[in-house]
Amino acid sequence: MAKKSLIVKANREPKFSSRHVNRCRVCGRPRGYMRQFDMCRICFRKLASEGQIPGVTKSSW
């Protein structure tokens, strides 16, 4: 779980556009972020295996 203060700080409008920080919309984690799904790899894996992300299926071969 990310610090609440850092999540609030990331939601504010940055002074410069290069200061924008991508964070997971589920847990607020800044690392392992996937832009296509707006979430981190951990939340993506959990939600994909539960079938809650449309169009994503668990790979098996």
UniProtKB/TrEMBL annotation:
Its cofactor is Zn(2+). Binds 1 zinc ion per subunit. The keyword Cytoplasm does not apply. Keywords: Metal-binding, Ribonucleoprotein, Ribosomal protein, RNA-binding, rRNA-binding, Zinc. Zn(2+) binds at residues 24, 27, 40, 43. One of its GO terms (cellular component) is small ribosomal subunit. It comes from the Bacteria. One of its GO terms (biological process) is translation. One of its GO terms (molecular function) is zinc ion binding. It holds the Pfam family Ribosomal_S14. Belongs to the universal ribosomal protein uS14 family. Zinc-binding uS14 subfamily. NCBIfam families: PRK08061.1. Binds 16S rRNA, required for the assembly of 30S particles and may also be responsible for determining the conformation of the 16S rRNA at the A site. Part of the 30S ribosomal subunit. Contacts proteins S3 and S10. This is Small ribosomal subunit protein uS14.
